[in-house]
Amino acid sequence: MQKILHYIGVVEEALKKNSSTKIPIELYEPIAYSLTIGGKRIRPALLLLANDLFGGKQEDALNAALAIEVFHNFTLVHDDILDNAPLRRGKKSVYEKWNANIAILSGDVMLIQAIQLLSKSNKTHLLEILAIFNTTAIQVCEGQQFDMNFETSLTVSIDDYLKMIALKTAVLLGGSLKIGAVLANAKIEDANHIYEFGKNLGIAFQLMDDVLDLYGNPDKFGKRIGGDIISNKKTYLLLKATELATGRIKKELDFCLTSKVLDDDAKVNKVKIIFNELNIKQLALDEMNLFYNTAISHLDSIDASAEKKLVFENFAKSLMKREN
Amino acid sequence: MQKILHYIGVVEEALKKNSSTKIPIELYEPIAYSLTIGGKRIRPALLLLANDLFGGKQEDALNAALAIEVFHNFTLVHDDILDNAPLRRGKKSVYEKWNANIAILSGDVMLIQAIQLLSKSNKTHLLEILAIFNTTAIQVCEGQQFDMNFETSLTVSIDDYLKMIALKTAVLLGGSLKIGAVLANAKIEDANHIYEFGKNLGIAFQLMDDVLDLYGNPDKFGKRIGGDIISNKKTYLLLKATELATGRIKKELDFCLTSKVLDDDAKVNKVKIIFNELNIKQLALDEMNLFYNTAISHLDSIDASAEKKLVFENFAKSLMKREN
User: What is the CB neighbour count within 10 angstroms for residue B16?
Assistant: First the structure.
């Protein structure tokens, strides 16, 4: 983890140097704000780590790393409008602190700034990393749209759900790693392996998120346990339960999802009993492990030093052992 | 004009070929809609024309031309949310036909698609045209923000206004022309001259717009004469009048701008009398001619065939003689 923490520091430092106050301030203040309210910088750090794995130079990959972080924050600025979200990382979202118009326009500028940063990368690989970036960026938007569709859709299959979380969250992890690899001149197979490592790990991570919402340690989780159940959010747990429930259990689940008399605590408790009867937690963990193991097998296939690959494996393990 | 019409046709045809129906349709239907409700395709046609001026091949510039048109329509999709505009080109805006969320997200995808199209251009010039595109795109956003700021700002100078219309409208004309020139391997001075031609012509065009709002032929204008006055829009005419008005005239102008008893027709008539007293129409036309002449002098400086340059001059003239 030492190495990831190092790169997180590198990214943080570079973001500070890169920030500037330009006019109109109505546009640039929200951008600076969104980039300084405490992101974890995981994606750009992974990009630099992948670059290092294949023997690349940090200075050749730093602008692309910043591009990924600016892009990621652009998606958050716009998503907070779409989700009507007042909070982001415990602070006011740009949408809430200013307004929707400011959030739209400053987000647009961030997307263009991301391309500007990316364009500063080594000319030899520019076309390739632009292609990865553009494809990934469009997929992230598609994932967000599928997620919004699911809110009102009556039938969402597990496959639909896995595809959605792949697009919305996982491909950006994969894309970040692949860009780092390409900039280090990695072989195409290896660049694809590190992409698949990131993508599969991202899906596993999201499934873990779904499990933690209900089965996390309340002292460490930081959010209300069962929040997804209260809001009828179509997580892996709920979709799997809907798929498996029949007879009495199906009736009870339907009741929980539609009842207007159940209070929040009772709803969470009742749904948890149903999930336990259907063994949902274990099924979710099994699915998660499937993606986790696929991620690790791609990592194993990469032609690089075992020592350097261990950093990625330890990082992956830490993600799966987290409690919040 | 024959040649511009030809390139407009080329762009129209290529846009049709380029469109596809992908999922999620909630994202791609609005994109197809916004690209088919009848834009004039002036910017991409000018890009192709500039490419031709410097002996470029159409197929080398077509993707960049499409990129500009997709980008331009992205700005319209997002601007219509910002302006709360139900109509675009006489049809429902994406924002009105669907909703703000759909307009935000499909706009985002269009911006990325524009970069994708641009990236298909000849590798030799990719870095250069990306730089022009990114700078221009950010300037357009800045212009939109300045325009929004002006709505609530008490003091907007003529200089502020000219800067705003340059950013919001004119730089994209300049940028389109310059990209076409660069892709044709034009000399850097010539690429800059064609940029300045487009930018200055764009400013002149916008000033003409301001004049036509009040002094246009009602039968041909297509919009209500004096619409800008009714909404107290800070156009060149109003800003110039505010700058020049003193004493009685200033009092009368202030009355018109703040009165709640004046009906729309009376307001337009009264303000027009004030403008006439201050000779505002002529001053606006003088300013417009200044930019127009600067545009033409840049065109004259370009090292290219007089015959080919004449197409640009005739186009510029036609813009200035328009009645709507």
Answer: 10
